[in-house]
Write a structure and sequence with these properties.
The complex is a heterodimer. Chain A folds into three domains: 30 residues; 147 residues, Immunoglobulin-like, CATH 2.60.40; 37 residues, no CATH class. Chain A has a five-stranded antiparallel beta barrel. Helices cover 24% and strands 35% of the residues of chain A. Chain A is flat. In chain A, strand 4 and strand 5 form a beta hairpin. By secondary structure, chain A is an alpha+beta fold. Chain B is an alpha/beta fold. Chain B folds into two domains: 112 residues, D-Maltodextrin-Binding Protein, domain 2 (3-Layer(aba) Sandwich), CATH 3.40.190; 120 residues, Periplasmic binding protein-like II (D-Maltodextrin-Binding Protein, domain 2, 3-Layer(aba) Sandwich), CATH 3.40.190. Helices cover 38% and strands 23% of the residues of chain B. In chain B, strands 1, 2, 3, 4, 5, 6, 7, 8, 9, 10 and 11 form an eleven-stranded mixed sheet that branches. In chain B, helix 2 runs antiparallel to helix 9 and helix 8 packs across helix 9. The longest helix of chain B has 25 residues. Chain B is elongated. The termini of chain B are far apart. Classes of the chains: A alpha+beta, B alpha/beta. At the A-B interface, strand 3 and strand 5 of A face helix 2, strand 2 and helix 6 of B.
Chain lengths: 241, 271
Amino acid sequence: MSNYSIGWGKREGKHLLIFALGLMLAVIGSFWAMSPATAGAEDEEIVELKCSGEVTTDDNSIFDDAYKFDFGCNQDVYAMSIVSNREIDSFETEVIALQPDGEPGANEDFFCVGAVPAFGFACYGSPGKTPVTKASAGNMIEGKFTLSAPVCDANVQPKFMAVPMIEYQTINDLADPPTIRKWYGTAEPFVLDNSAIRCKVLNPKAKAKAACAKVKKAKTRKARATAKRKCAKARALAQAS
Amino acid sequence: MKNSKGSVLGLFLIACLALVALPGVAQAKPTITISGSTTVAPLATQLAKGYIKSCKSCVKFKILQGGSDIGVADVARGRVTLGMSSRIPKPSDPGGIVFNEIAKDALCIATHPSNPIANMTQEQVQNVFSGDVRNWNLVPGSSKSGTINVVVRTAASGTQDAFDKIFMAPKKTFSGATAKASNGLIEQQLERDPLAIGYLSLAFQKGVHIVSYKGVPCNLRAAKSGQYPGTRPLFLVSRGAPTGAAAKWIRWIRNNPRALQIAATSWVPFK
């Protein structure tokens, strides 16, 4: 009887491993060859508009309920509106854009206009200027406004948004020669970060009034004591707001 | 019988609609639209807010800008209720308009912080802004050397008009000066350019050096006391004597303690 066996021996296994590795390298190599970097064509990415900003309290104002905002995008901003779910009753009438180093951008100055009280206002550059006024990409427009009522006197958390006006562009490479069209238009609203002024309690005064009204209505001593505690807590929160 | 029932129902519905609509009409808030001076705009906006609170939202405002000449033109044509002006009336202004003074403002000469000239006389101001003197080494008190960059306001500006009348007359501003559309833009230019000189309203002093004029510092105290010679009145311009909501607002601005307190932050209040 011989000692031969049918199946994978050591030599066959080694060959199989080498084959598998080679196949893997070939597959990886073909993906690399197909990747955009080596495709040979010059692909142009459309830069996604990204904007951000925030709203914080303005502690230097002569008015109560005064706030500061800043806003900027990764593209030039030619005008903007600030919109809120809170009623705004005044705004800074001239705002500027600051560079990342804190210096004002040259001629990056906007006039703000609008109705008061209203749920927002608009800011635009000097009309008829050449070159057109804009806040350059990366610069932040800073301004101020005040609200008609305390920010937490409402049923929902405050929300502030900025709507920038940007330059749109289409390139028709199919035309000969290629044609480029440019125009100005509003972009979508961007929510401004207002985590610094979020309300712990909405309508704190109304809630305190309701809580304290329960003291008289309480029928037992225990219930009255509980209601008094809740009333005191609600009043403290209302005062702190 | 059916017809009369239908008529009664129709009349009843009309009466209900009228009851709903009439109170709404009676309660419609007047809107005061204002346009004009970029100098007056910050003051007017604050006074608008103060008044809305004071009269318990009895009125709404629409705030626009454009410069004093725009405000005067707009109100003369009835496009706005009131025009904002930081200059006195000009002979060329349309007839029938009334300049209602609401406050005063100090007009300050300003330079870059690295060029802290202590004081300028009227002659020195006129020499620089007329272009007769073109180099900083000829300006007493300046440590700079180089061509002076004169920065002024554009033609529609009441601030430009006031500067010409208060500081420059009978000389004229240098035609080669850089013209800017607002106090803020002049403030920006002066913050960035060590060789620039310009003028701006007292409320716009961030990041610039304010030069005393005729030996008097340009500040609120000197403006209020009447010592500072560069003050000018600020106006809300009406078409004829002001009436209605506009008249009430102007009366409030001139007399109400809260209004005077608001104006006193960066301006000289009416009284």
